[in-house]
Design a protein that fits this description.
788 residues; alpha/beta; eight-stranded parallel beta barrel; seven-stranded mixed β-sheet; 26 helices; NADPH dehydrogenase activity; FAD binding; NADP binding; FMN binding
Length: 788
């Protein structure tokens, strides 16, 4: 592959140096930045310098690096094939130099309790960080970049006045970011583990994860080769384990020696070495903005991602590629920096979500120690949710099939199509149609719409179809369109729907979710204004405490003891009608800020009587309701509880609280917990993302041993298979996918080539059981290609 060393033709005015002023706002008048200052000589800053100089040799580019050329911290750097492809297209010279020094391997070894599981086909490439810097130094010198080592960069404001563009690649402790913190608005989160970067003077055969269960707690080793005779070794453990093991009192040499002893088997008895290595806590950096005037953040200054997915250098290099491309593509610097941020922020956010999932998996490693060896390995491999069941099958079908056999999957059966038993009910597969309010009832009576809606989804193949939240009283409705079970007429209407499901979709179970709106009632239909108060026809609201859901909403009355008794009886009467209607399962809605959820959260329960205060007291009324419902619900039929495992708000329910809440319901006879989050307070700040709520279900399942139902942006059958096989959940509830496709489960079977007892096509639909052909789609073009 050839490339040109000359300038890429551009249009627009050239930038010129400007005298320093006292103007605090960085200038933004440059169309094509000619003078570029780069703060930080790490891989991201150096690669940005090389790219920008190569794109325009007339550019004057200066890099300030406080350390000497041969100073480096850390040892090996892992780059993905995707990143290498971008480098190859943008600068073949750098790519070829990297290629000459890469150590490549395919396997991941996971060693736990003297058992090693190996998964292949992963495709890693690594080299020493020092070698990477040498390659980039040489390329920068060749192109004429001014590299200033052992030099502190001038203040960012000074640089922004003297240069057309200032690239802040000054790392996780960025002084540039701090100088303009009022603009960048950084958020830096520290986490629960301590770790230390070390090296070994031999090459691991693979990427190795080793688990050590010590008298002080669980420790883990992350190791990988980066040269023929060297490996990176990271030792990590929770803060309390680090303290208990006495590492806080050890110096660098003593820590290194202790780590080598703990992981002597993995190291073959060989020593570890350090390079000014220190125990530290990982810091996740997120910035609301990445640029200010002509100053732009790059790499760790803009964002960090946990080392367990190996993305720090990768992200910095990709930032440099995108920034260089946007500067060429856009007519002004302002538009280029906006395009750079617009392109990179979603990619980085996705990576950070994956990194957060991986980080938290290792923080909670102790939960998974008793999993069977292969399932433990599968769980580790899929921890970030980027490697999935289907993806791992492509990489290593033999390993994946072995995990499936251990799990109990018959040959050719995806995990989602294995049965699951709750009390006297056996579900033929692990898919649940999640409760979804339809706001389409009249006086609480479900009509033809509900028959068609729930009937269609029952015909669609799911193992369990749930109703929307069915309200236990007129005052317990969310909207005038909400369904109820507080009259005989409503009970008969539900019986009609249940009978249709049982007759036309045999093998599909149907469950009812009972709830009371509490302070979130008397509102408009969703499409008329979600959570907006009715303009007329309001009914009075009740809640644990007189706190409105929204400032302009109705203030509920605090429930008295006698009213609590009345509401408990309303739940039992509704449950009795549900049993007569023939529902197979009953779920008690204790989530999303509705009445029972309002008792559980400290943000909505300010009572000073026996039903408020400590978590045990806040649990009292929901447990009383559960006991009353369980007493009238048929013994052989299962009963579940939906909870909000976090309020996504300071001072609210925590993940630790959720475990205690789940244990309490289990002790009272709950057969499973449906683990949702949030919607308790209006000012919540959820961390959305794919499968974003599933870690809470995972934690409850492993901490309590109680079956769980995972919900929350689970949208693909691959996700369902991954979560089930990893042991993070027992059932997966999907809402929006079933609105998009009522036959989602049938189509998941067709797309996986599955035809077995786990899903049955209704006879009239059998002709549609073969997946239709689709058109061809082409792969995206490389992000930045320089012609010859």
């Amino acid at each position: 592959m050839s490339s040109a060393e000359g300038a890429v033709p551009t249009s627009g005015a050239r930038g010129t140096a400007r005298p320093a002023t006292m103007n605090p706002q960085p200038p933004m008048t440059i169309n094509h930045p000619l003078r570029v200052a780069i703060i930080g000589g790490g891989p991201g800053g150096l690669y940005a310098a090389a790219l920008l100089k190569r794109l325009d040799p007339d550019r004057e580019i200066t890099v300030w690096e406080r350390n000497a050329p041969d100073d480096t911290f850390g040892f090996g750097v892992v780059l993905s094939d995707e990143t290498l492809g971008g480098i190859e297209h943008a600068d073949p010279t750098v790519y070829e130099a990297l290629q000459a020094h890469f150590t490549r391997w395919d396997d991941i070894d996971i060693v736990h309790r003297n058992t090693r599981q190996t998964s292949g086909g992963h495709g890693f490439a690594a080299l020493g960080r020092k070698r990477l810097l040498e390659i980039l130094h040489a390329r920068c010198h060749e192109l004429g970049v001014d590299l200033r080592f052992r030099s502190e960069a001038p203040p960012p404001r000074t640089l922004s006045e003297a240069y057309d563009l200032v690239i802040a690649a000054d790392g996780v402790h960025s002084t540039t970011r701090e100088a303009y913190s009022h603009v960048f608005r950084p958020h830096v989160a520290e986490h629960h583990c301590r770790y230390i970067w070390l090296a070994a003077d031999f090459a691991f055969e693979s990427f190795r994860f080793e688990i050590a269960e010590t008298e002080h707690g669980v420790m883990q080793l992350h190791g990988y080769p980066y040269a023929a005779d060297a490996s990176t070794v990271i030792v990590e453990m929770r803060e309390e384990v680090w303290q208990a093991a006495g590492f806080a009192e050890l110096d660098e040499a003593e820590s290194v020696e202790r780590c080598a002893k703990i992981f002597a088997e993995a190291l073959g008895g060989r020593p570890l070495r350090s390079n000014k290595s220190a125990w530290t806590t990982f810091r996740t950096v997120v910035n609301e903005r990445w640029s200010h005037g002509n100053v732009v953040l790059l790499g760790d200054a803009a964002h960090t991602a946990h080392f367990s997915i190996g993305s720090g250098t990768k992200l910095a290099v990709e930032d440099a590629l995108a920034l260089a491309a946007c500067l060429e593509e856009q007519p002004t610097l302002e538009r280029a920096l906006a395009a750079y941020e617009g392109e990179r922020k979603p990619v980085v956010a996705s990576t950070q979500r994956a990194a957060r999932a991986s980080l938290e998996w290792f923080e909670n490693l102790g939960l998974y120690l008793d999993q069977p060896p292969r399932q433990f390995a599968f769980n580790l491999l899929t921890r970030s949710r980027r490697v999935t069941h289907d993806n791992l099958r492509l990489r290593d079908a033999h390993f994946t099939e072995a995990v499936e056999r251990d799990f109990g999957c018959p040959p050719g059966t995806p995990p989602m199509f294995t049965p699951f038993r709750l009390r006297g009910l056996t579900l033929r597969n692990r898919v649940v149609v999640s409760p979804m309010d339809m706001y389409s009832a009249t006086d609480g009576v479900p009509g033809d719409f509900h028959l068609v809606h729930l009937g269609a989804r029952a015909l669609g193949g799911a193992g369990l179809v749930m109703t929307e939240m069915v309200c236990v009283s007129p005052e317990g409705r969310i909207t005038p369109g909400c369904a109820g079970l507080y009259t005989g007429k409503q009970g008969e209407a539900w019986r009609r729907i249940v009978q249709f499901v049982h007759a036309q979709a045999p093998g599909t179970a149907i469950g009812v979710q009972l709830g009371h709106s509490g302070r979130k009632g008397s509102t408009k239909l969703m499409w008329e204004g979600i959570d907006e108060p009715l303009e007329d026809g309001n009914w009075p609201l009740v809640a644990p405490s007189p706190i409105p859901y929204k400032p302009y909403g109705q203030t509920p009355r605090e429930l008295t003891r006698s009213q609590l008794t009345d509401i408990r009886e309303q739940f039992t009467a509704a449950a009795w009608r549900a049993a007569r209607a023939g529902f197979d399962l009953l779920e008690l809605h204790c989530a999303h800020g509705y009445l029972l959820s309002g008792f559980l959260s400290p943000l909505t329960n300010r009572r000073t009587d026996a039903y408020g205060g400590s978590l045990d007291k806040r649990l009292r009324f929901p447990l009383e309701v559960f006991d009353a419902v369980r007493a009238v619900w048929p013994e052989e039929r299962p009963m579940t509880v939906r909870i909000s495992a976090t309020d996504w708000a300071e001072g609210g329910t925590t993940a630790e609280d959720a475990v205690r809440i789940a244990r309490a319901f289990a002790a009272h006879g709950a057969d499973a917990v449906d683990v949702s989050t949030g919607q308790v307070v209006a000012d919540e700040q959820p961390e959305y993302g794919r499968s974003y709520q599933t870690p809470y279900a995972d934690r409850i399942r492993h901490a309590t041993g109680l079956p769980v139902i995972a919900v929350g942006a689970i949208s693909s059958w691959d996700d369902v298979n991954s979560l089930i096989l990893a042991g993070r959940t027992d059932l997966c509830a999907l809402a929006r996918p079933h609105l998009y496709d009522p036959h989602w489960t049938l189509h998941a079977a067709a797309e996986q080539g599955y035809d077995g007892p786990g899903v049955v096509w209704p006879a009239p639909y059998r002709a549609g059981s073969r997946r239709p052909q689709t058109g061809r789609t082409d792969a995206p073009k490389p992000r930045l290609t320089l012609g010859s």
